[in-house]
Design goal:
Terpene_synth_N_sf; mainly alpha; 5 helices; elongated; about 120 residues
């Protein structure tokens, strides 16, 4: 004969954990709510403004090949180079055309390495 299952004592006192409130705001939950059209248009305009600023900086760095190569490297490391493929290609081609002599790049091994890695020569 099997013994009956123990019945839980309804008067068992359980301790509460007294957890502190979460430090995370409800913004993570609310972030899935779609933005209205005005907010979305504003975000898209901000994105385009930032991309244009990066393009201007890339062009402004053209007078200094070392600075330009470092800037291109930073763009690629950030993972946003796909937005600037044409500008990067033009900048690298210009640097190659103007400074294709190894001695022309200030004999800086760092610059030479980045230049040749960018061009994949």
């Amino acid at each position: 004969m099997s013994s009956p299952a123990p019945v839980a004592n309804p008067e068992t006192n359980r301790r509460t954990a007294n957890y502190q409130p979460s430090i995370w705001a409800n913004s993570f939950i609310v972030s899935n709510i779609p933005d209205d059209e005005i907010t979305l248009a504003h975000k898209e305009q901000q994105l385009e403004d930032l991309k244009e600023e990066v393009r201007r900086e890339l062009i402004a760095a053209a007078s200094n090949p070392s600075k330009q190569l470092k800037f291109i490297d930073a763009i690629q490391r950030l993972g946003v180079a796909y937005h600037f493929e044409n500008e990067i290609e033009q900048a690298l081609q210009s640097t190659y055309d103007n400074y294709h002599g190894i001695a022309d790049i200030n004999d800086d091994l760092y610059d030479l390495k980045h230049f040749f890695l960018q061009k994949k020569i």
